[in-house]
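Here is a typical protein record:
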Amino acid sequence: DLQICQHRTPTCCTKKMEESYQAAVRRERTQSIQALNFELKYMIVGHITAFQEAFESLLRFAENRTSSLFETAYRPMAKEAAEPVKELFTDISLYVLGAETTVESAVLRFFDSLFPLVYSRLINPGITDLSEDYTECLRLTRQDINPFGRYSKNMVTELSKSLWASRMLSQALSLGIEVINTTEHAALTKECSKALVKMQYCPHCQGLTLIRPCVGYCLNVMRGCLASVSELDAQWREYISTLEYLTNEMAASHDLEIALTGIRNSINEAILHAQLNGPQLSATVDKVCGQPKQQEGNLSSDNIVPVKEATETQTFAMAHASLNNKRREFIKNMKRSRTFYASIAERLCDGDLVMRDSSTCWNGEDVV
């Protein structure tokens, strides 16, 4: 009553043993593919971790530098500016990690929140009445009168370029893990299970427990079983090329480190621009939002403080030079996996599974 290991000579197998063998080959095949995938998956996961750690560290550094700008140069508004600064960097982090948001909305929302503070603390430091309605009017007016000139748009452009490449790389790495996980659990067809039992266990039914399959026979069986997985070959090669392109972009025109550490300067230039155009802005705001209450003896608004470039930037650049090295190393290793799915049958037929250095092997029907 055997279904798979039918043979003319007497056998020591039963139908129940054949079923056990089918369960065994399924388990073994999953384990073999997992073992092959492990190194590749470990490398991608390692890079995701390194990338996210470096990104978070860079983000914290850029946020601290931006906060210190307000504490050293724009003291009157430092406390109130802390929340918009925090929101800006949270939005940037969410964008890079794949959230449905845009760099433009994050930056413009920040400048919307910043304008009421710049207007009431620097341009007209005598304002006492900053009601919700008046603040909201200032926020909305920012979009029309453009108090920060080209600097707000420039910041959107600079950040969009570098953050786009980082966002794409982050998503691409996650996609790689997803693909590998899916191939690990690709179901074996009944025909495949039977072919694997015939190849690996039918010799046992003849008492030939030390005879292993012939190389060519193993390759035929594995290629048949893994036809759907090896179809990924073209897409996997394209995927590696995309990773290479993104990492090159991040190291060139889309340099994340330069863009994030430049946020402080962009904001400083924007505030200086607004202060220099204070009288015109005040005239326009008075027409649109009305005149707010003033303190007696209005304070001078002539308090533009030049900001010195922080010296820690150089130290930071050195610390993050290693990120570029990690990227290069990662791509070098990933390029070695270009043929991963094309050669999966060859890899599975390697090692102990087949008989390589012997004149006798199992061809599916007999020992040859």
About this structure: The longest helix spans residues 15-73. The radius of gyration is 33 Å.
